[in-house]
Design goal:
The protein is an alpha/beta fold. The chain is built from 13 helices and 8 strands. The chain has 2 domains: 195 residues, Rossmann fold (3-Layer(aba) Sandwich), CATH 3.40.50; 111 residues, Rossmann fold. Strands 2-1-3-4 form a 4-stranded parallel β-sheet, with helices on both faces. Strands 6-5-7-8 form a 4-stranded parallel β-sheet, with helices on both faces.
Length: 348
């Protein structure tokens, strides 16, 4: 009899544990930097699923069965937008469960830049000091002094059911906008606020945790921005060439001097005219730093840097080597700065 009672108690315990697990919110995030920001907001509640594995590029990726399974179970899915993560469009249209899909390109307060339509960037005035007036404390006070409702009203005017309905011009503006928005830490702050709002609405039981995590993450992002600005100050005026035009937000925020990109579309090999144009720019502007990316073939980069005066570095806009964790965004930016300063610092 005692054995039967023990087994019954164990069964009830397992059933209760299973019920708790099932009620825990399930969240998916598309790429490593977005996953890192979402994970930071969710710390202590649950771990979001990462859809695009480290080492892969969102350009031309085919969703794995494990990723499709995560999507089918998700309550909330965060992505940049349907153009950047085009590989998600068909699976999202066919998933069995109705998840809320949040396109972060529509985040309130996001600073958007237009696509640059050629591979040779013309000099422009950097406005990185104009559209970010903060000292790290204001954000803390603004986000911390509330009861969980003020920020929702301030940053997210929606009913929690369909982010797309409120943005009727979504496809129009996404087609003309540079989508690498996460590389500006101020945009990352806007994303963190919005993620906290969305999750607080979807999972009100844990709203206080999401908002406290957001406050802490915003403080860390402001510290990251200040640290990055200090590290880049001595090399900001030195021109460099990137593999593809993914870093405009980072350049604009920190006043960097990118002179052009080798490829317009990273999935398409650059033609002879593009190669010739970049070669001429390297010579004319005395460029000593050309930057490859780990996801793409670096042979063309090496060919362009075929003399002793041009140094080749490797930078990564999507966190290929970062851990899929709450620190991944910070690791990605710190590693990007390390590689960039090493390349630019090697100039003579």
């Amino acid at each position: 009899m005692l054995r039967i009672v023990v087994l019954a108690v164990l069964a009830l315990t397992l059933t209760a544990g299973s019920a708790i697990a099932e009620t825990r919110i399930r969240v998916s995030a598309s790429i490593v930097p977005i996953h890192g920001l979402v994970a930071a907001v969710m710390e202590g509640v649950a771990e979001p699923d990462l859809i695009l594995p480290p080492g892969a590029s969102p350009h031309g990726y085919a969703l794995r069965p494990s990723g499709a399974l995560a999507l089918s179970r998700a309550d909330v899915i965060f992505r940049v937008g349907p153009t950047l993560e085009a590989f998600l469009n068909r699976p999202l249209a066919n998933i069995s469960k109705k998840a809320r899909v949040v396109d972060l390109i529509d985040t309130p307060g996001m600073q958007l830049l237009p696509i640059r339509n050629n591979e040779a960037f013309e000099p422009h005035d950097h406005e990185h000091g104009d559209h970010a007036d903060h000292d790290g404390d204001d954000d803390h006070e603004k986000h911390a002094d509330h009861d969980g409702h003020d920020d929702h009203e301030k940053y997210a005017d929606h009913d929690g059911h369909d982010d797309h309905e409120k943005h009727a011009d979504h496809d129009d503006h996404e087609g003309s906008t540079d989508l690498h928005v996460w590389l500006d830490p101020q945009n990352a702050i806007a994303i963190v606020r919005h993620v906290a709002d969305v999750l607080s609405e979807a999972d009100p039981t844990n709203a206080s945790i999401y908002r406290a995590n957001a406050v802490r993450t915003i403080r860390r992002l402001n510290e990251l921005e200040a640290r990055t600005a200090d590290r880049l100050a001595s090399v900001a005026a030195r021109p460099f060439i990137v593999f593809h035009d993914a870093y405009q937000y980072f350049e604009n925020r920190f006043g960097l001097t990118a002179a052009g990109s080798i490829a317009i579309n990273p999935e398409v090999a650059p033609g002879a005219r593009q190669i010739s144009l970049i070669r001429s720019r390297i010579t004319e502007q005395h460029i000593h730093c050309v930057l490859a990316e780990p996801q793409f073939n670096s042979d063309i980069v090496k060919a362009l840097a075929s003399n002793d005066h041009v140094h080749v570095g490797v930078i990564d806009p999507v966190g290929t080597t970062a851990r899929a964790a709450s620190d991944s965004y910070f690791e990605m930016i710190d590693r990007l700065v390390t590689e960039l300063t090493a390349c630019l610092g090697s100039t003579s």
